[in-house]
Amino acid sequence: MAHLDAQYDVITLPGYGERAARGDDLSTTALAERLAVQIKETPAVLVGHSASCQIVVAAAVAHPELAKALVLVAPSGDVTASTWATLAARWVRSAVWDSPGLVPRLSRQYFRTGFPTMARAMEAARHYDLAAAVRELSTPTVVVRSKHDHLAPPQWVQQLADKAHGEAWTLPSGSHMPVLTNGRDLAAFIGRCIQSD
Known about the structure:
Layout: E1 13-14, E2 17-18, H1 28-38, E3 44-49, H2 52-62, E4 67-73, H3 84-95, H4 103-113, H5 115-125, H6 130-134, E5 141-146, H7 154-163, E6 167-171, H8 178-181, H9 183-195
Parallel strand pairs: 1-2, 3-4, 4-5, 5-6
């Protein structure tokens, strides 16, 4: 956000920056509807990171008038690799590339959201077929990953971009947290989408 030369809103949702109440529906489609009602100015460039990419896509599929473009950053959502064991192994292989300096920033977010809420959100997210959903998009889409991101490997990112008739890019450094480590690069992609007609 420090590098983004445009007006923006950060929208948090249960499981994604907010604690969920006991009865909250954390399915991707339910959260996409919550997102849709909070988008103030349309059409907007919708940006998601990791599992929130699924929510952004679901919102754009259900409400195409809301989205000018999508930027999917380090998307998870590969149902062929969504067991807890696979996700944990990929997370570990990604995390070793991250700076220990990210831990305090991530810890604050994780404690604010709450680990039970995060677990519920991830359980719901890992069953949403993002590859199938992006085929329904009518919105220009850019999919971005970092070089050492094993949760969003290159073949997965390319597959999503191809199915969305969009673009796939790999940043030359970083892992699964490019929103914290590659802000200038991401801001450039977002800015290009904002300025496109």
